[in-house]
Amino acid sequence: MSTAASLLSQVDAGVARITLNRPQQRNALDIPTLRGLIELLDAHEADPGVRVVVLSGTGRSFSAGADLAEWAEAEARGQLETYGWTEMAHRLMGRLHGLSKPTLAAVNGTAVGAGMDLALCCDFRIAAQSARFKAGYTAMAYSPDAGASWHLPRLIGVEQAKRLLFLDEPWSAERALAAGLVGEVCADAELPQAVDRFAARLAVGPTFAFAQTKALIREGATRSLAEQLAAEQAAGLLCGRSEDAAEALRAVAEKRAPHFSGR
């Protein structure tokens, strides 16, 4: 396990676990934390031993979003608009959303503002029963600035997105599940086990095919059906040349479960 001031990182059995580690600040995202997350994602993307990435937080919060104490210091210096938080946050959200490997947010508590957006950038979200989701922007007289206005309409529909953003009410884990904001809710004590089971399934899967599938879904929204079919054909050809595809065919012939290498 590697440890930084604000982050913990551990890789085990193909699963990279990144933990926000600022419990006294409710895992708020200051610039060093944002930068550290980008560096870890870059490292895990490049490491063939990593096949899935899990994000979680220590303490009672997943993340409270932007570090408002850091914002206040920048405001006092007259640098709120120029000190770089938004640019760094946008780099992080884009990096996480574009990661080729599956990503999973283990939402252990409150997820507010950019903390909620961090979870939205992941492919999957599992929430503890006590988790709460709150946009946090309009209460501060701000509009969304870390991807919520892009993710929410796609995940939960336009009207539900507006309800969450305009009214700025905290959503329970169950309401988030009913709306489609998360895919699973479990008892608080069972969250680590539920996340481990899900991550383990992803970690033994066909990693290259997962990457192609993520790219097709991510980029398909801007294509016509004909363009998407062409992209699917191209991705399928690449998958067919992978070691995992050859292993899948061998497994069928030998009447056994495949053992994917992720290549």
Describe the structure.
- The strands form two sheets. Strands 1-2-3-4-6-8-11 form a seven-stranded mixed beta sheet, with helices on both faces. Strands 5-7-9-10 form a four-stranded mixed beta sheet.
- The chain contains eleven helices and eleven strands.
- The two termini are 25 Å apart.
- The protein has two domains: 2-203, 2-enoyl-CoA Hydratase, Chain A, domain 1 (Alpha-Beta Complex), CATH 3.90.226.10; 207-254, Lyase 2-enoyl-coa Hydratase, Chain  A, domain 2, CATH 1.10.12.
- The protein is globular, with a radius of gyration of 19 Å.
- The protein is α/β, with parallel strands linked by helices.
- 38% of the residues are buried.
Question: Which short descriptors sum up this protein?
Answer:
alpha/beta; catalytic activity; 2-enoyl-CoA Hydratase, Chain A, domain 1; 11 strands; 2 domains; 263 residues; 4-stranded mixed β-sheet; Lyase 2-enoyl-coa Hydratase, Chain  A, domain 2; 48% helix; 17% strand
**Briefly, what CATH class of the largest domain?**
Alpha Beta
The radius of gyration is 19 Å
Mean pLDDT: 92
Class from helix and strand fractions: alpha/beta
Strand content: 15-25%
Can you identify the CATH superfamily of the largest domain? 2-enoyl-CoA Hydratase, Chain A, domain 1
The overall strand count is 11
Set out the fold topology.
Elements: E1 2-3, E2 7-12, E3 15-20, H1 31-46, E4 52-57, E5 61-63, H2 68-76, H3 85-97, E6 103-107, E7 110-112, H4 114-120, E8 124-128, E9 132-134, H5 148-156, H6 158-167, E10 171-172, H7 173-179, E11 184-186, H8 191-203, H9 207-220, H10 225-240, H11 243-254
